[in-house]
Every structure is written in structure tokens, then in C-alpha cells.
Amino acid sequence: MLLSARIKDFVEEFISKDYLPGCSIMINQSNELVYINSFGRRNIKDNLEVNINTIFPIGCITKIVTSMLILALCKKNRINIDKPLRNLFPNNPMFEADMFSYVTIKDIIAHRTGIVDNNLLLYINKNETKNDIISRICNEFTIESFRNKYSYCSTTYVILGELVKLITNRSYEEYVTNTIFKPMNMIKTSFFDYDKFLELTYDNFATPYVKNKHELEEGEIIDTKNYNSSMGIITTIDDLSRLFKELIMRYSKTKYLSEIIKPLGITDSKLIYPEIVYDFYGLGFNISCYKNNQFIYHDGNYPGYSSQITYFPKNKISIAVLTNISNSLFPKILTFYIFDILCNLSETKWKHRLELVDNIINKNNLMDINVNENKNNNLNILRFVGRYYNDACGYIEITNKNFTLYVNIDDKKFMLTHIKGNEFYTNFKYLNTFLLLTFMESNELDKVILRIKIHNEERELLFIKE
Predict the structure, then answer these.
(1) What tens digit of pLDDT does each residue of 401-415 get?
(2) What does the pLDDT look like over 199-210, one tens digit per residue?
(3) Where exactly are the structural domains of the chain?
(4) pTM (2 d.p.)
(5) In what residue span(s) does the Beta-lactamase-related domain sit (predicted)?
(6) How far apart are the C-alpha atoms of 391 and 134, rounded to whole Å?
(7) pLDDT in tens, 346-360
């Protein structure tokens, strides 16, 4: 069976089982485009199909563009990526904090700062400016955690975006558009505009979806304008094929490739497949090995979307997969399936593997809790009603309707379900998981403190009731 037919059968089987609504795929071999196609629907309700010009957010794949851009700028301007930023820019107020006496450009690109993302801030924080974000990063920095281990952090890439502005005197968005998007004729590629999305003025934009048990539901999308250098690019598989080809041509024949694939830290990725024996992080890429074939890659998980781009240097094969489903391993599985075919490798039962792992992920996204069935009859929930404040996030509000609590975050309202005591949870569609909320009464402050955290994550936010 031909490659195109095998890919079609593989993808359409999973679409028919509601594993994903739609996807776009690109394969480049020896720097020539050998396959590009799309399947499924970009919008289920309106029965709109995906095509090669459908726009997808690619999330953290944006980091590849940012890191390559920074490396090129540093080489051109003779900026040492191994020197602390304060040493490079001694009189710049952006780098006054103690953190910049230690942290280098390479540390940020390779996620070695020791700072860990608080993912909740990406979803409920509307008040922070880029300067606020950088200040918060500096406050979270500790010398004990610095270079101690790999700590993936989208937030620190905001610094790289501002660094582009500092070096070029143009905004990160303007510089990327004029030096990458336009010269490569990537006419449908830009940075996500939240207002434009809400106004439905994007043409051919994939609708975000999440998997709720065994059904697909429309997901929520977030405003990431302050994080454009980390996760802001939206593109089509057709435009992405041009970018991929240019990156390979530019870097595969230079020392950049050897620098990129030099491991700088062991990632915290779980090696759930026996064919993958390691996973490191280099300069903007993950470095891994599949069936004795080294490859570099980056995935892009964005609310409602999952993507991955992969390059096998020895085989000169690059593969990109874009989907409109949250937190899915489908792009990774499909990449390995395609690579097996192209290289005539022993067949792995990837369909069965994906089903097993998908069931595990769904179980992990469900909380093993005993929900209170007493409808809060014995709990005075009215004392929790009111406005709560956090310096980084501003205000959220807890309201009551018919003795049921709701948390209001900006223009969104989430119903709270009582677990026990002062603990509640709510479904959080952005991440296809749950928020855990605990009301804590402080006698010392004579205040109610609200603790919010994402299920299965350690970081939390504290809000104080006014």
C-alpha cells in the first residue's frame, strides 16, 4: 500500500473514533516536499473541513523560531550567549535584578534557569504586562535551583522576545514578520489575535476541541499576546512546510546543527515507549532517539490544539503534524508511524499503543474524589462569597446562586462542586482538567484565603478576600 493510502487509513480511523476532529500533515525528505495533506473537520458543528490552508496555533513550537532568531542575532552582533545578561547589557534597567548576574541567553533557551511555570497564570492572568512578567520571573529565581535541573518554562521566553526588541529596535512580532514570514511568503502565518478570534474574523481557522471522556467538545482559547515569543505563532501546514525547509537548509550544513543537538539537560518527559531510550533538551529543541535514529523535535500543546515538528538528521526526514485537539499524543504517534514506513522499519502497533495511552491520560485527567452529595446543606458557603485579590492576577469573584458557588474569572463563570470541608473543584476546559479550590480561614489576618491549583500540578495561587 502506498504511503498516502496508509496515512489516510491511520488518520481516518482515529477521526472516526473521535480521538481528534482534524489534522494537517507535512513530510519533507532530502529537503523536498514529498507529502502534504489534511483530514477531518476544523469545525464539527458547521461540518467545515480542514485543508492545507487551515490555520492552527502551534503553541510552544514558536520557541524554535525564537531560539533560532536569537542565535542568529547573537552571531551577527557577536553577543556571547554564555555570558550573564547583566554583563552583556550592564546599563540596561531590564537586567538590574540579581537573577541576571547569573542567567545567560543559553540558560533561557535550554530551560536551565530553575524557574518553573505556574500554568494557571497563563489562563487567568489578564493584568500583567511583559515588564510585570519579567519582574515576577526575577522574584521566583533562586540560586539553589539555577542549573540544578531541566525546568521547562514558557514564561522565561518572554525575556528572549524583549531581547530581540533590544537588539533590533523593533518589536519581536515586527522583526519575525519582516525577516521570516514575509521573505518566506508565509502569507497566512502571524501571531494570534484574541479579539480577532472572538469576532470570528479569521478565515479558515481551526476550532479548538477537548476530549470529555469519549466525546469531543469545543474548548476555550486564551489570550497569549504577552507570550508571543513563547507560544504565539499561528500558521498553516502549507506555510509551515516553507519554514521547515528554510530552517533545514540554513542549519543542517552549518555548525548550528551540532550546537542544537548537543544535550544541555535531561528533560522530565516520561519514556513511555521502549523504542525511545532518552530525551534531552538543547538549544530550542528536544533531542531524542527512536529505534536507534536520533531526532530533534518540539511539540506544541496549546488549549484546544496539539502539534509536533520532527527532524531526523541522518535520514533527512522532517515531519509536521497539526491538530485541533488538546493534550493529545496523536502527533507524536503519527510521526513514528510515518517514519517506520519511510525507513522500512519493523512495524509497531501504534494504533493499539495510542488507545492504551489515551485511556491512561483520560483517567489521569479525572479526579479520584468522593463528591459530597449533601448539596452543602451543612456548610455555610455564604462566608466564601466575595472578591479575592492576587497581585499578579488581579481580582476574581466568588458568587452564590441557589446555594451553589461559582468562581468568576474575567468574563467566564465556573460552577464549583463541593468535595469535602472547604474544598471544591471545577471543570477547567482550557487544559481539559480540573481546578481545585480550597477556602482557608486565617485568624491571624482575619481574612479568608482562597488557594487555587491545577489538578496534578504542584504550583498554586493564593487570593485574599477583601
Answers:
(1) 988 999 987 677 889
(2) 888 999 999 998
(3) 3-67+170-365, 381-465
(4) 0.89
(5) 9-328
(6) 14
(7) 988 888 887 776 665
The architecture that CATH gives domain 3-67+170-365 is 3-Layer(aba) Sandwich (3.40)
Contact criterion met (CB below 8 Å) for 275 and 38: no
Q: Given this structure, which CATH class describes domain 381-465?
A: mainly beta
Answer yes or no: is pLDDT of 150 > 80: yes
Q: Which of 110-114, 183-187, 200-204, 269-273 is least confident?
A: 269-273
pLDDT of residue 118: 76
**Cβ 428 vs Cβ 434: under 8 Å:** yes
Grid coordinates standing for 464? 485574599
